[in-house]
Amino acid sequence: xxxxxIYGSSFDPITxxxxxxxxxxxHRCHLDKVVFLPCSSKRKxxxxxxxxxxxxxxxxxxxxxxxxxxxxxxxxxxxxxxISTYETxxxxxxxxxxxxxxxxxxxxxxxxxxxxxxxxxxxxxQENKFIVMARDGIDMLKVxxxxxxxxxxxxxSTFHLLDKGLAMEIxxxxxxEEFRLGGEPRYLLPEAxxxxxxxxxxxx
Length: 204
Description:
Elements: E1 3-9, H1 16-29, E2 33-38, H2 52-63, E3 69-71, H3 85-95, E4 100-106, H4 107-114, H5 121-127, E5 129-133, H6 140-146, H7 148-151, E6 159-162, H8 172-180, H9 191-199
Helix pairs in contact: 2-9
């Protein structure tokens, strides 16, 4: 029985922090695979700066040569009305029927779920397991204990909280701004992705 982490993000673009975070989570939580899941530009709660095609290509370039990392374009292929984390995790549990699936997310998203901002929130928490990464200023245990939804559906293994050394804040937004303003973010993202962005004149 393998342990699979689903790591969803816009990856616009994928950064070295994304890769370092995924590698660290895999090491600490003994994951056999991390699935990089770029979200679709059709999602109503996201505004993408880059076409799905380019983000998908950069994810594949960024994770090549690491056998623990795989990319999946499941959400990119879905109709907008079908896209939700609950449905996505249900899909991966069908794909990896004999394995344990974890959704990897930041503590800021845990707050959003606690506040009822996610579709199918109750079923999502009842039926899935989560690896939650610390974010500055968020007390993850307090978020869980203050939320009836989270605390009443936590059987002790629902949330794996990682609260040490994962709060690096080099964001995709910062890198996009550097490209747009003529900066030099070369060493903040995979070398192949840097050259891909230059070749395709992205983020100008």
